[in-house]
């Protein structure tokens, strides 16, 4: 199937490509870093369940979409009170030095993100701190609804593993969001950005996986579950201590109610992360997020992106390529991220691989729930059987050569790996 011609959007730096799926009755894959909802996408309420702390029932119907910015600000102020700050555009220009390019953190189809600095004098009760200011690229009602989804969800959701929304700005046609600043950027940057001299350590990768899992568990644990729908490495942000926090709730949906087993919705998300049953039917459940979580686990293990069109066809989809290696520690070591240099737990990697295999099961019912995922990951934290000290990794590999395996795990060179660059090939340039 040919990809449709569409206006090229600038991908979130340093992404080289994202493949986004969006369709009503069928799936279309295009070179887009982000899909925006249609006007009908958010026509239903996204009110919350009472099980989440400070999660009041609030929906789009509570905010006057067709009203002036002054009326919208009034509605939001009545809903959130002192929980969120209503900033003026002039104030945000001031804290970002008029959105200086020197403060640019990244940009994509949704708009630009700038770093800013807030001092105590800006607002009473607001402490001095660095912030991230997102300027949404508003495209009529769609862009406004995406901005509003962020305000409604993050204005009501509070958890250590969700990025904190500090405030918003709705002024004339401008829509901005102000978040806590995440000093180490996205997980995507650390796994895939070229030029980084230091790779994420195994223990750090495990810590990030646990933090992200706790964020998803919080969302899924509501009386009326929140389906995140856009779980991927670029939406996992890291603070100075590498604590993971989920960001970007523009595509989040409230889960099914009553006897319903799923939410039927337009297919949206990022190709490579989206669960196959969701792509084919539009049926969305919390198990759709579990599949995406499994994909991120594979990215943490292998150092490869979920989808890489530049690779040979058999290696482009990470899940399809990695699946044959995940049930054996002997095979798994051949697809481990070479940047780890053998500094990872053999047992821990095997358990994470098996967990990922469960998460990306083609049958949603076979995928584990988030509490079980967290329990499994936390049990791996104290393992110290490093591959390089247990004969599972060459202590001094020949320069310019990476070891890899066949799916059958044939033993060559003493490590069960083929010399052909199939699994641990150098990153594409």
Automatic annotation (TrEMBL):
GO MF term list: ATP binding; protein serine/threonine kinase activity
Domain Protein kinase: 99-380
Gene3D superfamilies named among the record's database cross-references: Phosphorylase Kinase, domain 1, Transferase(Phosphotransferase) domain 1
UniProt binding sites for ATP: 134
Gene Ontology cellular component list: plasma membrane
One protein family per Pfam: PK_Tyr_Ser-Thr
Localization of this protein: Cell membrane
Function: May be involved in plant defense signaling.
Name of the featured protein: non-specific serine/threonine protein kinase
Native source species: Sesamum indicum
The gene coding this protein: LOC105164981
């Amino acid at each position: 199937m040919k990809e449709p011609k569409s206006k090229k959007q600038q991908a979130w730096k340093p992404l080289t490509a994202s493949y986004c799926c969006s369709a009503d009755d069928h799936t279309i894959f295009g070179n887009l870093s982000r899909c925006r909802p249609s006007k009908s996408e958010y026509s239903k309420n996204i009110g919350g369940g009472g099980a989440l702390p400070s999660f009041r029932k609030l929906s789009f119907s509570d905010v006057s979409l067709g009203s002036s910015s002054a009326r919208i600000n009034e509605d939001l102020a009545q809903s959130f009170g002192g929980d969120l700050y209503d900033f003026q555009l002039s104030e945000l220009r001031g804290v970002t030095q008029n959105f200086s390019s020197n403060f640019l953190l990244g940009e994509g189809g949704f708009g630009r993100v700038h770093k800013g600095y807030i001092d105590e004098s800006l607002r009473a009760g607001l402490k001095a701190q660095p912030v991230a200011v997102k300027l949404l690229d508003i495209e009529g009602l769609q862009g406004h609804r995406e901005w509003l989804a962020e305000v409604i969800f993050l204005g009501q959701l509070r958890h250590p593993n969700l990025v904190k929304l500090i405030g918003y700005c709705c002024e004339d046609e401008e829509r901005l969001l102000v978040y806590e600043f995440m000093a180490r950027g996205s997980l995507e940057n650390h796994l895939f950005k070229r030029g980084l001299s230091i790779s994420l350590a195994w223990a750090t990768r495990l810590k990030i996986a646990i933090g992200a899992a706790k964020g998803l568990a919080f969302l899924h644990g509501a009386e009326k579950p929140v389906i995140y729908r856009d779980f991927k490495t670029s939406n996992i942000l890291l603070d100075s201590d590498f604590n993971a926090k989920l960001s970007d709730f523009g595509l989040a949906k409230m889960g099914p109610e009553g006897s319903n087993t799923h939410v039927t919705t337009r297919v949206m998300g990022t190709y490579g992360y989206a669960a196959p049953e969701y792509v084919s039917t539009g049926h969305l459940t919390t198990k759709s997020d579990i599949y995406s979580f499994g994909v991120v686990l594979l990215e943490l293990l292998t150092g490869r992106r979920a989808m890489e069109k530049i690779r040979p066809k058999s290696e482009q989809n990470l899940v399809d390529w990695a699946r044959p290696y995940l049930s054996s520690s002997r095979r798994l070591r051949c697809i481990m991220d070479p940047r780890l240099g053998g500094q990872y737990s053999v047992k821990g990697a095997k358990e994470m691989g098996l967990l990922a295999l469960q998460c990306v099961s083609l049958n949603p019912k076979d995928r584990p729930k988030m509490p079980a995922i967290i329990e499994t990951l936390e049990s791996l934290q104290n393992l110290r059987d490093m591959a390089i000290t247990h004969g599972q990794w060459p202590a001094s590999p020949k320069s310019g050569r990476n070891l890899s395996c066949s799916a059958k795990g044939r033993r060559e060179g003493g490590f069960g790996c083929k010399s052909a660059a199939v699994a641990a090939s150098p990153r594409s340039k």
